Amino acid sequence: MTAIRRGRAEDLEVVAAIQQASLGAARWNVADYLEQSFLVAVDGDRILGFLVARTVAADECEILNLAVAPDFRRKGVARGLLDSALQGFRGGVFLEVRESNGIAQEFYKSLGFKELSKRKGYYDSPPETAIVMKFYSC
Ligand SMILES: CC(C)(COP(=O)(O)OP(=O)(O)OC[C@H]1O[C@@H](n2cnc3c(N)ncnc32)[C@H](O)[C@@H]1OP(=O)(O)O)[C@@H](O)C(=O)NCCC(=O)NCCS
User: The CATH number of the domain where 27 resides is what?
Assistant: First the structure.
């Protein structure tokens, strides 16, 4: 059974491996996640996925990264992480996603996110436009 808890230093090796295996995920230094709002989805000892977010204002937050281990996708893990991250939060939730990452866009749309704008040349390695998406959590 999947549970959601705060991420810890001992989770970082597995989180880095999930990030590495997830094409659409941001490739940041996972140690920095400990300074953000960092959640992991676990089944017993196994880490299935993670989410990193930060509050940018009292009524605004940003999803910085989200990924689920390839063999645990499409089982509601990311939905559980996002629901948990937004529990009790009221306000605008923003994120950027690569234009080519149709799966993540479908995922966010399924939860009510709408496309807000595009940022040309936002990404590098490889260069790509970002789609900015927004959801109002209440
Ligand atoms: C995007 C991602 C996090 C979704 O994780 P997940 O745990 O598989 O998603 P969920 O099982 O919670 O899916 C919830 C809903 O999103 C939509 N969805 C998820 N994956 C989808 C897919 N491959 N195709 C179409 N819709 C999809 C569906 O509506 C799904 O509900 P359903 O399964 O009842 O139909 C995962 O695919 C992933 O790790 N991708 C690589 C990293 C990435 O792109 N991160 C986003 C960075 S912005």
Answer: 3.40.630.30
E strand segments, the chain: 3-6, 37-43, 46-57, 60-68, 91-98, 114-123, 128-137
- CA 67 / ligand 1 centre spacing (Å): 9
Give the total number of structural domains in the chain: 1
Q: Is position 96 annotated as part of the catalytic site?
A: yes
Q: If you measure from the C-alpha of residue 78 to the centroid of ligand 1, how many angstroms do you get, rounded to a whole number?
A: 7
- Consecutive 10-residue runs of the chain (138 residues): their mean pLDDT? 96 98 95 98 97 96 98 98 96 97 98 97 93 96
Catalytic residue (choose from 33, 60, 96, 99): 96
- 106 part of the active site: no
